[in-house]
Write a structure and sequence with these properties.
Elements: E1 7-12, E2 16-23, E3 28-36, H1 42-60, E4 69-74, E5 77-78, E6 82-83, H2 97-105, E7 109-113, H3 114-125, E8 133-139, E9 143-149, E10 152-153, H4 183-187, H5 189-202, H6 214-222, H7 226-250, E11 254-258, H8 269-274, E12 287-290, H9 297-303
Parallel strand pairs: 1-4, 4-7, 8-11, 11-12
Antiparallel strand pairs: 1-2, 2-3, 5-6, 8-9, 9-10
Helix pairs in contact: 1-2, 3-9, 5-7, 6-7
Length: about 300
């Protein structure tokens, strides 16, 4: 059953929080805004959400009383209790955020892990009905993992929110998860920069550094900088190792790659596809694509918690 009336979607990030009023029947965002994430304590956090909600309704000329419910995407583990959050948001751990927010906003609240909600948004707002099993990876400062079957999350909690920490390629540096070379460590923005620096160090032709950010590495690779090309190709090999493992584990028929790094990935998608070899069954195929929703996926996914 779809709620009639707007639903508030909140996507909480490390530095920014995205807010949107979503029409679930029309599958679209009515109005949205972005605010710095409040890190000043629990009561101030609730107040910041309430103020942003008021500003959002005013911007969209929508009576707050028409908004039926609110979905929230949070980093870390989200279940009966919230934990493993980004450190400046650690004041939320141990607090009853969902009931407190319900009292503050005077509406039903549902919450889940932000990366899981990206997958929920992609499945319900951007993918054809044929996307029965959709897996999404959000690549940026870290790696977010989400998996949806027939438009629904399968686990009642986000117990697998650290699914990006699977061993891929052994390196000297150790991740906080305990592995020396997990997928998140290798394919996040810092992972791409590491591959680029390794390529520079190993370059026999004395390549000069031409990139200082992950986006610049992609740009330099498009301009055929040898070290940048080698760095991006190592990054693609690492990413494909994770994708092949996920294909064997989950058998998705659609894989969506989103996040900041995905915006530079389109020229490399054919090469990435060529590195996929996993076949969990005879006749298996998988569609690999970059996100069409991009930064709106989290807000849409948060609202989609009220699609069922």
């Amino acid at each position: 059953m779809i709620l009639h009336g707007p639903v508030l979607g909140i996507d909480v990030g490390g530095t920014r929080t995205k807010f949107g009023l979503v029409d679930l029947a029309e599958r679209k965002i009515i109005v949205e805004l972005v605010r710095p994430t409040c890190t000043d304590g629990f009561e101030q956090y609730l107040l910041s959400i309430s103020e942003a909600f008021g500003d959002l309704c005013q911007s969209g000329k929508i009576d707050q009383r028409r908004v039926r419910a609110c979905g929230v995407g949070l980093p870390g583990f989200v279940g009966p209790r919230i934990s493993a959050l980004w450190k400046p948001l650690s004041f939320l751990e141990g607090n009853q955020l969902v009931p407190a927010l319900a009292r503050t906003l005077q509406m039903p609240i549902r919450a889940d892990n932000d990366a899981r909600l990206v997958a929920l948004g992609e499945a319900n707002f951007a993918s054809p009905s044929g996307a029965q099993r959709l897996l999404s990876l959000t690549l940026g400062s870290g790696l977010g993992f989400g998996f949806v079957v027939q438009g629904r999350l399968q686990e009642p909690t986000s117990i697998n929110h650290l699914a990006g920490h699977i061993p891929v390629r052994s390196i000297a540096e150790r991740c906080y998860c305990g592995f020396h070379g997990c997928l998140e460590m290798l394919v996040s923005a810092s992972g791409l920069m590491r591959s680029y620096r390794e390529a520079l160090t190993a370059a026999p032709d004395g390549d000069k550094k031409v990139a200082g950010t992950a986006e610049e590495v992609f740009e330099a690779a498009q301009s055929q900088s040898p070290a940048a090309v080698r760095g991006v190709r190592q990054w693609l090999v690492d990413l494909s190792a994770g994708l092949n493992a996920y294909i064997y584990l989950f058998g998705p028929n659609t894989i969506v790659i989103g996040g900041g790094l995905s915006k530079s990935l389109d020229p490399w998608m054919r090469e990435l596809e060529s590195l996929l070899f996993a076949l969990p069954r005879e006749g298996y195929t998988v569609e690999l694509k970059t996100s069409r929703l991009q930064e709106s996926a989290g807000v849409l996914g948060a609202a989609a918690l009220f699609l069922s």
